[in-house]
Amino acid sequence: MKAMILAAGRGERMRPLTDTTPKPLLPLQGRPMIEHHLVRLARAGFREVLINTAWLGEQFPQALGDGSRFGLAIHYQHETEALETGGGIHRALDWLGAEPFLVVNGDVYSELAFEALPRLAEGDLAHLWLVANPPHNPGGDFALERGRVHSQGPTRLTFSGIGLYRPTLFAGCSPGRFPLAPLLRQAMARGRVAGSRLNGPWCDVGTEQRLIKLEQRLNANMG
User: Fold this and answer.
1) Where do the Nucleotidyl transferase domain residues begin and end (predicted)?
2) Domain containing 50 — which CATH number?
3) 164 forms bridges with which residues in the sheet?
4) Overall number of domains in the chain
5) Which is the most buried residue in 9, 28, 188, 220, by most CB within 10 A?
6) Is 98 left (phi over 0), alpha (psi -120 to 50) or beta?
7) pTM for the whole thing?
8) Element spanning 34, H or E
9) Burial grade of 153 (CB within 10 A; 0-12, 13-18, 19 or more)
10) What is the DSSP string of 83-109?
């Protein structure tokens, strides 16, 4: 299975830190945030990863190289203008191939066991991991009921930014900039999206304050 890490965002809420450094390259425990994903992916047996970039994209190969020091082959997809999640994945489909693939947001921290990913059931277009609603997203994104994800429901959870997808989720899409959420909601309406609750450590590192708190929590757990 191949993996893609989304790293093309501008990181507006992290400014001024992101004026000179892309958000996934900001340090967390002494190394770029994105390296935490790369190490876990390599440990789980992944061998090829694509990273899409836009803002200050030249810094990624400078910082990460070809991936050999992680035991990976890293490929880069530079977008002159960030294509959003849907557009970025769509542009990478030729590289990702015909089989299901993993996509991880480059600006989240997670300890999800990538070596124990489920297989997509026949007919399912996606499998999403959902987390308890953080303070910055109290209303949640989707509902999870008996292993199925719905756009509405009595108990809504927050999308973790981690998902498995079939290329056919993007059937009929045109190249360019577009979000992923509408495609997922269409698939949910047809009952074709599975999901799991992610109960372990997770953080959407969207602001400098969240980054500081995450660093403090991880350091405390090491003590």
Assistant:
1) 2-122
2) 3.90.550.10
3) 102, 127
4) 1
5) 9
6) alpha
7) 0.94
8) helix 33-43
9) middle
10) -HHHHHHHHTHHHH-SS-EEEEETTEE
- Per-residue pLDDT band for 223 (boundaries 50, 70, 90) equals low
β-bridge partners, 210: none
Whose tokens are 């190249």? That residue is: 175
pLDDT tens track for 26-72: 999 889 999 999 999 999 999 999 999 998 989 999 999 999 999 99
Instruction: Tell me whether the omega of the peptide bond preceding residue 167 falls within 30 degrees of 0, making it cis.
Output: no
Range of the domain at 43: 3-222
Question: Whole-angstrom distance between the N-terminal and C-terminal Cα of the chain?
Answer: 35
For residues 18-33, one letter each, b for 16 or more C-beta atoms within 10 angstroms of the residue's C-beta and e for the rest, the string is beebbbbbbebeeebb
The average pLDDT across 140-160 equals 94
Residue 218 class from Cβ within 10 Å (0-12 exposed, 13-18 middle, 19+ buried)? Answer: middle
